[in-house]
Amino acid sequence: MSAFIVEDTGSLDWRLLRESSVSVYSDHEMLKRHLGELAGSGYTYVEFGCAGRSSAELAAELSSALGTPITVGGAQLDVLDDVLHDPARLSSNIPTPGGLVFLLRDFDKFTMANQKSSTAILNILAGHSRVALMLGLRWIIIVHVSDPDFGFEPMQIELKLNLDEASMRANSRIDWSTVLGD
To answer: What distance in Å separates the CA atoms of residue 123 and residue 126, rounded to the nearest whole number?
Structure first.
């Protein structure tokens, strides 16, 4: 099952997901219009206020929104990644028709205080959004920034995965606490 059909290729969700699972908005009016259009297409959106949050608090809230509350503390990003790693959990939390939108409001403020974690969170969400697309589901991550001149650092994490047969069978995951040096 495909998440889209040829007739969908002009739709807003197609345009957003075509290049990346993560879209950045600074224009409040455009964001409001696009959220309305997505809602009209059957999307549910969940908003997360990111300013003033720690990475552990945000990871716990993101996980709770997917039906798996986790306590704050420890390797939160690894736990969030584990929660999202379950395709059954993804499919049970993403509505069809339509899909799911995570709106990360004031993410620029969060990023200034949590540079490494903000990159990891976006990488985790984007990776699992791609898995959702493989399952025929639509999950869009919208990053709202209040400063239109805010520039994200390039979001690159060097991954050293040994993709031999054993690790492929083991369904290897990234240990985010190791990547971030926690």
So the answer is: 5
Domain ranges for the chain: 6-180
Q: Which CATH code is given to the segment(s) 6-180?
A: 3.40.50
Token readout for 96 is 């069809």
Q: Which amino acid is at 57?
A: E
Pairing relation of β-strands 43-49 and 22-25?
unpaired
Give the mean pLDDT of the chain. 80
Give the strands of the sheet with 22-25, arranged side by side.
22-25, 139-144, 99-105, 43-49
The pTM is what?
0.81
Please state, as a whole number, how many other Cβ atoms lie within 10 Å of the Cβ of residue 49: 16
pLDDT of 158-173, one tens digit each? 343 444 444 444 445 5
